[in-house]
Amino acid sequence: MGFKAALKEYNDTLLALVEDGIIAKNLDNLHELPRGLVAFILDQIYDRVVAPKVELLSKYEMGSDNVYGELLHPFISRLLVDELKMNSKQVFVDLGSGVGNVVMQAALEIGCESWGCEMMENACNLAEIQQTEFVARSMLWGIKPGDVHLERGDFRKNSRIHEVLRRADVILVNNKAFTPTLNDDLVRMFLDLKEGCKIVSLKSFVADSKSNHNINDVGSTILDVEEHIYPEGFVSWTNAGGAYYISTRK
């Protein structure tokens, strides 16, 4: 078969599938992009924007809440797609969103409305540049991702974040290095979440023992918590696996 004949056969087959509604049906059943493509696009953006200036992210105060670490693409795909089964009509919020990697992955892979809030200036600056590159790369690939919203400052004091939390379906908090005070403040913020909202964290917001008369007693009252284990190679600060928690607002 010659090239022109092969091209005609391809076009005829594709047109028949369009007219039969088969392509539209398959697209309706597709709720996320292939993971390899998601990682490829996000890595291109990161390598162009963040990698040349990655040393800026190591400038933080030891013992503070502002310690930088990333949850890697496979971890986020497992969380949002496999475990929480997010769809494009839902709302995702990342509290302490760093350079915006997870916010953009949720918008790209799921197609959902995606929010992030970060207070470290260097991370915020890089996140905004990444967002510009993200829009351009998405257009290049013919992809319409979910809306990305990046906020600067302390999420405890950000009115837009407080507003979106009330309708959030999934919240991510990489609180591995957060101080007890900040984790307690987060529990108070969770009082306003809608029933069924999922919170993913690296530390539990519920005390091990109910005999502890502190703010974590509130966590026990409003949250059902499940502990899970992530495998090696899922986070940036160590190759080892570890625990994470999925809390559900009662």
TrEMBL record:
CDD domains noted in UniProt: AdoMet_MTases
Enzyme Commission number(s) from the entry: 2.1.1.360
GO cellular component, one term: nucleus
Regulation: Ubiquitination of histone H2B to form H2BK123ub1 is required for efficient DOT1 methyltransferase activity on histone H3.
Superkingdom, taxonomy of origin: Eukaryota
Keywords: Chromatin regulator, Methyltransferase, Nucleus, S-adenosyl-L-methionine, Transferase
A Pfam family annotated for this UniProt entry: DOT1
Limits of the DOT1 domain: 1-250
A GO MF term: histone H3K79 trimethyltransferase activity
Catalytic function, reaction form: L-lysyl(79)-[histone H3] + 3 S-adenosyl-L-methionine = N(6),N(6),N(6)-trimethyl-L-lysyl(79)-[histone H3] + 3 S-adenosyl-L-homocysteine + 3 H(+)
Intracellular or extracellular location(s): Nucleus
GO terms (BP aspect): DNA damage checkpoint signaling; DNA repair; methylation
Primary localization: nucleus
Function per UniProt: Histone methyltransferase that specifically trimethylates histone H3 to form H3K79me3. This methylation is required for telomere silencing and for the pachytene checkpoint during the meiotic cell cycle by allowing the recruitment of RAD9 to double strand breaks. Nucleosomes are preferred as substrate compared to free histone.
Family that this chain belongs to: Belongs to the class I-like SAM-binding methyltransferase superfamily. DOT1 family.
Note from the entry: In contrast to other lysine histone methyltransferases, it does not contain a SET domain, suggesting the existence of another mechanism for methylation of lysine residues of histones.
Designated name of the protein: Histone-lysine N-methyltransferase, H3 lysine-79 specific
